[in-house]
Amino acid sequence: MSAPLATLTLHLPDEAATEALARQLAPMVTGAQTGLPGACIHLQGDLGAGKTAFSRALLRESGITGRIKSPSYALLETYKVSNLYFYHLDFYRFSDAREWLDAGFRDLLRDDAVVLIEWPERAEGFLPPPDLLICLVYAGDGRDATLTAYTARGQTWLNAIVPPPLTAPSPRQAPPADA
């Protein structure tokens, strides 16, 4: 993979914060904010780290209505809003990196479509660099999300992301004076 252009790490304390991050990215990838629709986003992380939750929130915020299914078994779920196609892929079941080529997914990697790929490392060496790589790692009850831009488009998105507000620790109460 090519050298990253920029990186941003955010703490996402809960699923709502993961969804809020997806809501920030949605107008950028659909072109509503940038005027340039399309994206390739890779999502890495352990099982249950929030890859599908992020994808569902992004798709929902982008205008997808109805049921949004995980592509774990079908490998690909396709959606369309207006003239913009959304391809949500999951390579978890791949045992060989070349399987994505055999499946014919290469044709989906278009600049004018939004492509979300979960488990991209299962096709490592065969995928082009994404606009944005989002790596989700367990951090206590929440997740740490490291967003890495590999294209100028992805770098523009990173520059526009507003980190979630830090939760201030609750002040300790002083013990009663007569204690």
Quick tags:
179 residues; alpha/beta; 4 helices; seven-stranded mixed beta sheet
Walk me through what this model shows.
By secondary structure, this protein is an alpha/beta fold. It has four helices and seven strands. Strands 1-7-6-2-5-4-3 form a seven-stranded mixed beta sheet. A hairpin with a 2-residue loop joins strand 3 and strand 4. It is globular. The N and C termini lie far apart (62 Å). About 3% of the residues have low confidence.
SSE blueprint:
Blueprint: E1 6-12, H1 15-29, E2 39-45, H2 51-61, E3 76-81, E4 84-90, H3 99-102, E5 113-118, E6 132-139, E7 142-149, H4 152-160
Parallel strand pairs: 2-5, 2-6, 4-5
Antiparallel strand pairs: 1-7, 3-4, 6-7
Helix pairs in contact: 1-2
**H-E order:** EHEHEEHEEEH
Report the structural category: alpha/beta
Identify the strand order in the major beta sheet: 1-7-6-2-5-4-3
Determine the strand fraction and express it as a percent band: 25-35%
Mean pLDDT: 85
Largest sheet: 7 strands, mixed
Measured between the Cα atoms of the first and last residue, the distance is: 62 Å
- Radius of gyration equals 18 Å
Shape verdict:
globular
Question: Could you give a short description of this structure?
Answer:
Helix content is 22%, strand content 27%. It is built from 4 helices and 7 strands; from the N terminus they run βαβαββαβββα.
